[in-house]
User: Fold these one by one.
Assistant:
Number 1:
Amino acid sequence: MQNTATPTHCPYCALQCGMNLTPTPDGTVEVSERADFPVNRGALCGKGRTAPAVLARNVRLTSPLVRDAGGTLVPASWDEALDRIAAELSRTRAEHGPDAVGVFGGGGLTNEKAYTLGKFARVVLGTSQIDYNGRFCMSSAAAAGIKAFGLDRGLPFPLEDIPKSGCVILVGSNLAETMPPSLRFFTELKENGGTLIVIDPRRTRTAEQADLHLAPRPGTDLALALGLLHLVIAEGRVDEEYVRERTAGWEDARAAAMAHWPEYVERITGVSVPQLRETVRLFCEPESAMVLTARGPEQQSKGTDTVGAWINLCLATGRPGRPLSGYGCLTGQGNGQGGREHGQKADQLPGYRKLDDPAARRHVAEVWGVDPDSLPGPGRSAYELLDALGTDIRSLLLMASNPVVSAPRAAHIEERIKSLDFLAVCDVVLSETAALADVVLPVTQWAEETGTTTNLEGRVLLRRRAVTPPEGVRSDLEVMHELAARLGVEKGFPTDPEEVFEELRRASAGGPADYSGITYRRLAEENGVFWPCPSPAEAGGPGEGARPDGQLEVVDMGEDALLDAPLPDDPARETPTAHPGTPRLFLDRFATPDGRARFVPVSHRATAEEPDDEYPVLLTTGRVVAQYQSGAQTRRVAELNAAAPGPFVEIHPRLAARLGVAEGDPVAVVSRRGRAVAPARITNAIRPDTVFMPFHWPGEGRANTLTNPALDPTSRMPEFKACAVRLEAVAREAVAEESIAEETVAEETAVRETVERETVEREAVSAR
Ligand SMILES: Nc1nc2c(c(=O)[nH]1)N[C@H]1C(S)=C(S)[C@@H](COP(=O)(O)OP(=O)(O)OC[C@H]3O[C@@H](n4cnc5c(=O)[nH]c(N)nc54)[C@H](O)[C@@H]3O)O[C@H]1N2
Ligand SMILES: Nc1nc2c(c(=O)[nH]1)N[C@H]1C(S)=C(S)[C@@H](COP(=O)(O)OP(=O)(O)OC[C@H]3O[C@@H](n4cnc5c(=O)[nH]c(N)nc54)[C@H](O)[C@@H]3O)O[C@H]1N2
Ligand code: SF4
Ligand SMILES: [Mo]
């Protein structure tokens, strides 16, 4: 065991904050500040600071579990558990065909794991039925980015550009709670004289920082963006030269925007015409400006068009590909970016290649040593896959997701999961989904294993092993290696992450997300490298990692043009010809065949479920600072639980008065999918026609019991951010004592405030 500090990164969100870890003699792990990483410069939120708590034996799994004849999960040996999984998956395949076996992955998996999982599904299981939780996260922004720019990398520039921009519009991001250390970039923006505009139906802690806060009705961001573009045109603020030289499709997009009069948009969104005009002025006047979207506008059944409309606004005003300007998506999960590039998506091969592209299939099949025709075609999207469990899909291997809590229409999905012939789950804890499994495999965690992640900026990072895992756990890579061997594939599933990465480099070479010029050594020396980073061979010189024939395959992207100015004398780089990586994209051309960005003609449409007499209120959902996602990890950390012990419903005082509900009173929220109960949190910070619930908890307060699985036609993203509900006051005595107590709410608020204060203080300290 090392006793010195190991520099590594946080297990949770897409900032991938740098931290140092030191094992202590008493068996715990100490987190200390790592100031050299530019994204967080030492600052951490409460989740990152307390992450080692989940390494403790008392909260995690340390033995495989197998369901016995009586239906109870009991400890078992690794061989017994792995044999059982291999036997069940083989049986399903023999009885129902390969597509009856499903695989579900996660954006928390390292690049090496995500890559191996995709390969495992296609090569070992031969199934097309693989997708992952990132479909629920940023798939709409990804689809819109590919349409417009020919490439999806969440942020096309480093976070460090934000403070130097003239204006930033944050659409549906509550980053003060979801990425606290990043708030610094926005406060610096304001200090530098730039403007921050926040668009959120709630006056969040992020919105409180804004120079201008617009609070539209949930699900109306598309109309809002169209209204802004209408004003840009009407006020003569279009950058005609840019539109002519760098874009295509303007006329149709222009016509669509002209149909969205400001007064019409005001009626749809609830944002006043003067506010629309002010937004346009603040966005257009400075030389540089950005739009950043997050889950608010994206998790809608029209998320792809909505992001498209925001990109149109950026293109019309000449922003993308210009310094300190452009459009970006704030990706969410720890490896939300890399996890969507290397093959765990239903339609995808490594390097962000398309599964239905014959050249891509040939390239990857060659790296994998298989016949291209043996690779299955595209499969179902995440919700559709989960919805097919127990019918078309009979057995499921699930790695790094907890859909019982996080999937839309969760009660239905829970039923689908229970109806499977066989479920195997790899996790670090006994999540609500793992608790339903036939076999649970306990795996190593971030601090116990090495691997790469790609943060929201497209910066590939090296997470290093800092502590020795406890007896009884194995890594996800070991699990796949063992299962592949049992299913007859002895080779091609290495357990050493660097060996996997070397193969990933070759598989990604020449693809849109080209990692072939990146090595573990470079990542260690350079503190991360931005993709695309072709190997010297790809860039025109000799080097390992290129295709054997030295050919570039997907040249759509115009690599040369994507490069930043090279840094020829950077001593950190391995060889003088090494590619420097690409912090800023699109400076000279976009990644489309003709180098031009595409406008998309889009028009407003309603949410899938508009309020009516029976369900008159809109429910939107999201996050709180102290819990992460389904809560599987953070609900096991005492300090975080104290700060955010349970679900709640944010209600405007007027709506609360109408219901006769006081602060802390239990409220039932009822949708066409089901009913959830949680205490009321009465606040002026939300629109009176809208209520908000965080989705971190299972049980009676599970927000996803209510949500609507209406899917975006392009991205297949469910509509997490808007569904119709009605509210009912619930008599206190009707509610289980432990779930709702006024004191808990008061206590929670006090502790939450302490945690927040601490976070801010820590940030202040490390900013100095
Ligand atoms: N503490 C914490 N941090 C996290 C996570 C976590 O679970 N907890 N998860 C990580 C992940 S995976 C992700 S994806 C990110 C998510 O990060 P964010 O996108 O910041 O998180 P959300 O809370 O889902 O949504 C952001 C805001 O959208 C608003 N919103 C709701 N409906 C609409 C709408 O129709 N339009 C607009 N414009 N806004 C709307 C909500 O009020 C909310 O304040 O956070 C990452 N960081
Ligand atoms: N209502 C509503 N629902 C939502 C959202 C919303 O805004 N509103 N947001 C959606 C979004 S953006 C997301 S990203 C999803 C996320 O929801 P989930 O997919 O459920 O994500 P997590 O809770 O992070 O689940 C990750 C699981 O993997 C485990 N794990 C962590 N690391 C590893 C590892 O390396 N290997 C393995 N095998 N397991 C690991 C964790 O312990 C945990 O049980 O939720 C979606 N659901
Ligand atoms: S913001 Fe918090 S959760 Fe996200 S990476 Fe940083 S410390 Fe981890
Ligand atoms: Mo996410």
Number 2:
Amino acid sequence: MASLRVGAVLLFAVLLLLLEVASAGLNGYFGTKSRYEDVNPYLVRDPLSLGPAAAGSGLPPSCAPLQLRALLRHGTRYPTAEQIRRLGDLHARLLRRRPAADAELSAAACPAAAALAAWQMWYNESLDGRLAPQGRRDMEHLARRLAARFPALFAARRRLVLASSSKHRCLQSGAAFRRGLGPSFSLGGDEVEVNDSLMRFFDHCAKFVALVEENDTAMGQVKAFKEGPEMRKVVEKVASALCLPVEELNADLVQVAFLTCSYELAIKNVTSPWCSLFSEEDAKVLEYLNDLKQYWKRGYGYDINSRSSCILFQDIFQHLDKAVEESKSSKPISSPVIVQVGHAETLQPLLALMGFFKDDEPLKANNYIRQTHRKFRTGRIVPYAANLVFVLYHCDQVKNPEEEYQVQMLLNEKLMLFQHSNETISTYAELKHYYKNILENCHFKEECELPKVNNTAIDEL
Ligand SMILES: *[C@@H]1O[C@H](CO)[C@@H](O)[C@H](O)[C@H]1NC(C)=O
Ligand SMILES: *[C@@H]1O[C@H](CO)[C@@H](O)[C@H](O)[C@H]1NC(C)=O
Ligand SMILES: *[C@@H]1O[C@H](CO)[C@@H](O)[C@H](O)[C@H]1NC(C)=O
Ligand SMILES: *[C@@H]1O[C@H](CO)[C@@H](O)[C@H](O)[C@H]1NC(C)=O
Ligand SMILES: *[C@@H]1O[C@H](CO)[C@@H](O)[C@H](O)[C@H]1NC(C)=O
Ligand SMILES: *[C@@H]1O[C@H](CO)[C@@H](O)[C@H](O)[C@H]1NC(C)=O
């Protein structure tokens, strides 16, 4: 009897160990629900570290930053009401399949289902996508790291323009960012300025809404992948682990279970029993499902996805132009630091408009294997607290007058390679030349207009 108990304890310990190992392997596959630390692992040890890449910025020593524009995704958030409803539904099914009387018997036959039935459903719909306490820390730490990286721009009493999407989680993120900078920073106004036409351009773009958002056939590839052989296998495996008939599960419920694993880690820093349902191979399939949706809804899938961000693109270059003009006429720079808080859906289209993370082949339901080494991995691009930073420099003692103004871009605090040169720095003139077509021809109003309907003709029908 005693040895049996020891055996059971040992077995339990081994199971726990396996759980740890398994979930550690899942972290890289949470797509847009990834923790920022999974992109920059050195932050786990020191959340204020500037990381190994901090050393060589590749800048001539005679360059000084003039203007910084940071586009941020809000920090770690709670699940949306919709996701919480689905999770409640799944959890209720697990509770139903376990009659209290033979709980022990059922636990032996189906340990995963028993563990999940015992898991406490602590999310409720009022949390609906709000910023989690971890999300506030994400933002405070990010603010402190940016200030440490660009001390001249973030020096005390310099003006900061802070704008945000109207969503609660973004406003709260903006406030946390400001707190992170400390009390001596003066804001333009007191408040975070709400600007949805810049930060939620997708809502305001009629063509995007009609062609993609509200179009049932637009996500055809996503639907096909949900029904395809790779997802089918994952659904069957999870059904079997939970001792549920496979008809009771579907891709959406399995995805919610996977999301819960990611949420528990990001919000509470725990490895939840939901994670034990998935192997690394399963996680790769679920990551692809997430990426596929982002690709068709926010990325290269449809041109209008990226074209709808023209308004933001133009705004960035207008402010860069203005800073260059001010510098040329020896005026103080009116907006040295511009911080704007939005969504993954704000950053992804802009990055697509600028040509980043574009694969040779589109992501489709039937090329999962061929996309194993794809560039378009949303967990690397837009985790929580993702940030895209443009820095304009003024450089002295240059050979060529064009080199007086130079630009760098950082994504998640790492220098990006410019599309036109594969280098981490570009003259501002060269950059504008490369994006000439977009600068001249991409205008929100024209891009987003729906073809005119002839009302007279319709009335007559
Ligand atoms: C929802 O959950 C939060 C956090 O667990 C809790 O503070 C809040 O009181 C709950 N609200 C309702 C309506 O149950
Ligand atoms: C939002 O930003 C755009 C572009 O800079 C500007 O034209 C518009 O007036 C702003 N809207 C608000 C409400 O501030
Ligand atoms: C919906 O999307 C499909 C596939 O891209 C497209 O063929 C169709 O024209 C779209 N429908 C509308 C109303 O835009
Ligand atoms: C998260 O949990 C890990 C492992 O238990 C621990 O080492 C780490 O300090 C925790 N991180 C935070 C921010 O609490
Ligand atoms: C940048 O590097 C990639 C990969 O090495 C290459 O395919 C691409 O052509 C290069 N682009 C330029 C502009 O040199
Ligand atoms: C609308 O359709 C009617 C009937 O087909 C046609 O007579 C009229 O010229 C059209 N109007 C416009 C503005 O195209």
